[in-house]
Amino acid sequence: MMADSRLLGPPYRVFDFYVPITNFPLSKPSSSDPWEDFSNVFRREHQPLPQGWADVFGPLRKGTVDDCLIVGQLGLSLDGRVATESGHSKYINGPAGLVHLHRLRSLVDVVVVGVGTAIADDPQLTVRRVSGPQPARVVIDPKGRLCADARMFADNGVRRLLITEERTRCTAPAGVEVITLPKIDGQFAPSAILAALAGCGMRRMLIEGGADTISRFLVAGCLDRLHVMVAPIILGNGGPGIVLPSLDRADQAPRMPVRVHKIDDDVLFDCDLSAQRVALGIAKKST
Predict the structure, then answer these.
(1) Is 157 helix (H, G, I), strand (E, B) or coil?
(2) Distance between CA atoms of 228 and 153, rounded to whole angstroms?
(3) In sequence order, what are the residues at sequence separation of 6 or more whose Cβ sits closer than 8 angstroms to the Cβ of residue 107?
(4) What is the CATH number of domain 62-243+254-276?
(5) What's the pLDDT band for 12 if we cut at 50, 70, 90?
(6) Annotated domain spans of the chain
(7) Could you read off the pLDDT of 247-276 as tens digits, one per residue?
């Protein structure tokens, strides 16, 4: 018997074909939310995943380059914008797209954002739209600009980390761990950020924003997957999505394997970037 669709949320479809989510493998009594059961099974790598969600989230279970798995997530309009010209971005994606983002959060060890996004959006970076474990929260803040009362610094029982410059004198809120890194050409090397987080025991990492931060990780070869959630809206002038070095010719642009999933009104492009991902090593521990 198929599970209640109200619990499953909007169906994930691959190229317009509905994927049934049945025969759910459980090692404990089912919770009120099938996603909580899925997130538990997801972490037990010897157990098979139900096919519907396996198509979307199975590639995030284990990296192919090393012990770490890094996924970037970006919500875009049809014309490639992440915000209006005034900076407003809530919400480009529909409810199903936002649920997908929260599902991603529940499957990773840590969520990473840049300080620009943290200041502009004041995100909580928690799992609220689905049931599942809460990830650690990290802000990349070279100058210590983020206020102590930022919502991502709220003490709700998970680790909170601040990545800042070695010579920056800033006082982190109580309970927030501080990682100091040197700058190279005025910026932190994405590989150094990931290596530091791996040293803290983080294995699955979500680079959530903003667009500049995701672009830097992409250029540096520091993403295994990129989830681009495209909404059926056109914003016109506004904040661009992925910004990369320019090319002279369109046929010089690298192509990558991609899987396309219809998630209610939004369309998810799951891009496989593992062929270009640099090696990071082994995480201190795994969750």
Answers:
(1) coil
(2) 27
(3) 39, 42, 57, 60, 132, 204
(4) 3.40.430.10
(5) low
(6) 5-58, 62-243+254-276
(7) 899 988 889 999 999 999 999 999 999 999
